[in-house]
Amino acid sequence: MNTETPSLPERGDFIRGIVAADLREGRHQTIVTRFPPEPNGYLHIGHAQSICLNFGIAREFGGRCHLRFDDTNPTKEEQEYVDAIEGDVRWLGFDWGKHLYHASDYFEQLYGWAVDLIKAGKAYVDDLTADEIREYRGTLTEPGRNSPWRERSVEESLDLLERMRAGEFPDGARVLRARIDMAAGNVHLRDPVLYRILHAEHPRTGGEWCVYPTYDFAHGQSDAIEGITHSICTLEFKDHQPLYDWLIDNLPVPSRPRQYEFARLNLTHTVLSKRVLLRVVNEGYVRGWDDPRMPTLSGLRRRGFPAEGIRDFVAMAGVARADKVLEVEMLEHAVRNVLNRTAPRRFAVLDPLKVVVENYPRGQVEEMEVPNNPEDPSAGSRRVPFTRELWIERDDFMEEPPRKFFRLAPGREVRLRAAYFVTCREIVKDAAGRVVELRCTYDPATRGGDASDGRRPKATLHWVSAAHAVPAEVRLYDYLFRSPYPGADGHDLFEDLNPDSETVLQGCVVEPSLAGLPAGETVQFERLGYFCPDPDSAPGALAFNRTLTLKDTWAKLRAQGRHDTA
Ligand code: ATP
Ligand code: MG
What we know:
By secondary structure, the protein is of the alpha/beta class. It has 13 helices and 25 strands. Helix 2 (45-60) crosses helix 11 (307-317) and helix 7 crosses helix 8. The site of adenosine-5'-triphosphate has 15 residues, from helix 2 and strand 8.
């Protein structure tokens, strides 16, 4: 578990401004926030922003943050999601301590408050169907109409609610509604539904309940029970705020939380709707919720993104008041920044071409000392075996090199990194004319990669000793959605799925030290990119995921002034 604090200072956003002022002006002694996921899917990069904001504020202002499962819809919620969510929040570097809660912990209390509302004439049982309720609700420009059941007596509503709870009625037969104002300008105040009948097993309360509170009825009251001071949510709840406040004002709740809204995080080439992600998984477009192409935290982790890079990205993104779409390259940039500093360098050849060093003694093995990170001497070095037969990258050789190709070619000398200079003497081809082997010679005076006469080849190649090479599968990843704005203009966003989002390479070779690398540890394959072993990887059947290439396109976008930051 990673419990480091974010490595970039958080920007003083408007929510932190509100929190700081509330403390300064004595409106609160202690700040209490919460992260309230519904366990109906895996957490994604958008949730990471909410997690960093809620837990971050609690940490920075000496308060606390609760993890609360918003489990009011048993038909869509599963224990698998609960477990994944807890694991992901911890992985991201945050801890709720003993403050783990569930909206379902409060079902009895919420029901009691529903009864209080009826008794106060502020709620009634309605027999309209869901469609009728929608029809009676009116529109943004037209007021709604009162339900014919709106004036039913307190006694009758109390009796019906009790019988709803007792299981006398089928799903959808009746609901409990607040009695507010069917002509209110805000449609959420037009007698919102507080309870519905749902004969469904709940992962926590089992068969105890067949009426469940709606989000609106559960959320603010759960906040009040837990003493949440700042209930921070995304903009789609802004219109719910008057209802949030109405319920707090009209119920004997133990504290007075306030809701604040910020803009959802969106990324190009990415869809962050759980409904869509569930379809992507269920229809088999990916290997699962944690597929390396998924924007889920478990997918990004499997892909090799460090938690620190995600936290840095969230800090860079800031907290906005209005919706916008950030470039996914910005996330990649933040991750590269971390990996460039922390990922050890290793040798791997994805498309191997054999090199035979003719004048190197047969059977000899030299352990070459190779630095683990040229940017960080404290990362030390490792020994990599060098022998007479090596693998190099096929595209590091050209028989007829164009003007700007400086790598290996007939008669040309290059440096093999941390080893020797070699010169290509002869090309061996198969019957089809394909190059299958290069016969080279080496200069023994260049051991370690430097010549005493000061000559410097224009190219340095990575390599793997053929006798020591470990075979591996390597999976290259590209965006799951080809289009930067999937489904823009209302077309089916599944048409934007990238058919080439995964390319599996067989027959790659890696240096021996990579055989034992644990899943999720990201290294740099020199000159190729960042890679990590997939959880599928096993001794004798290594599999690596490409986390990212080395090229930082965000820096370029920024230079062109095309970026979009908070
Ligand atoms: P759904 O896709 O089912 O509407 P959701 O993505 O809103 O769900 P929740 O489990 O309700 O998921 O979200 C938990 C918290 O995370 C909420 O407070 C929500 O506002 C926040 N959140 C969700 N998506 C984003 C996002 N893209 N950016 C920032 N915060 C988000
Ligand atoms: Mg939601």
